[in-house]
Amino acid sequence: MGFKRSEEESLQQILILGGGGHARVLIDLIRSAGEYDISGILDTRFEATALISGIPVLGKDDLLPELYANGARHVCIGIGSIGDNSKRAKLYETVKHIGFSIPPLVHPQAIVSKQSKIAEGAQVMAGAIIQTDSLIDENTIINTGAIVEHDCRIGKHVHVCPGVVISGSVTIDDSAFIGVGATIIQGAKIGGNAIVAAGAVVISDVPDNSKVMGVPAR
Fold first, then answer.
1. Are residue 45 and residue 111 in the same domain, yes or no?
2. Percentage helix, strand, coil, to 5, in the chain?
């Protein structure tokens, strides 16, 4: 399979892995930011040549080595998560092993402090705010309208859902899931693989591999 060349010589091409709701939000982000031309989507659920938001489905993930051999270099992870980030993490590691670049993607209507770091593969959606001296690590989603205050450390493969408020100096370890509209008070630590349910208010540390819910969260 030959790799599709962009008509926009100034734009680099990018592939999207996944064709569901999160992928369609990413399509809007990429088009709004204007830094990449989307060359195609890979998704096992759709027939090749199907269109998603006007973007052709090229086939399944097993095409990745062939596409790389034919000149593809950039991908983004277009699947979201509901409580379990393992599929996103596995895809991320797979494409890195092949050799792809997974650039950070930031919506132009997000606000990100120049003193904060957005790592490889992280995605910051429209209306999100990331304040000074925070780190958003690899392959993490800061979803629509979420707020990450100053001096936070958000680990790898984390999903911070829409409307979450994370106060200053919070640490969230790898693969945690923070549900829609949750609030985390300043200085709290959320352990790896932990789940904070939608609407929860976290006022103390959350251990690894645990799930908390309610106000206050327990």
1. no
2. 15, 30, 55
Which residues constitute the domain of residue 131? 104-212
Confirm whether 2 is domain-assigned: no
* pLDDT bracket for residue 48 (50, 70, 90): confident
Chosen domain end from 73, 98, 123: 98
Q: What is the DSSP letter of 163?
A: T
132, 90: one domain: no
Beta strands in 111-207 (DSSP E): 111-112, 117-118, 123-124, 129-130, 135-136, 141-142, 147-148, 153-154, 159-160, 165-166, 171-172, 177-178, 183-184, 189-190, 195-196, 201-202
- The residue-averaged pLDDT of 63-76 equals 96
156-197 pLDDT, tens digit per residue, is 999 999 999 999 999 999 999 999 999 999 999 999 999 999
* Domain CATH for 132: 2.160.10.10
As to burial, measured by CB atoms within 10 angstroms (0-12 exposed, 13-18 middle, 19+ buried), residue 156 is buried
Tally of domains within the chain: 2
What are the residue numbers of the active site?
150
**Residue appearing with tokens 């097993």:** 62
CATH of the domain at 50: 3.40.50.20
Instruction: Tell me the pLDDT tens digit for each residue of 104-134.
Output: 999 999 999 999 999 999 999 999 999 999 9
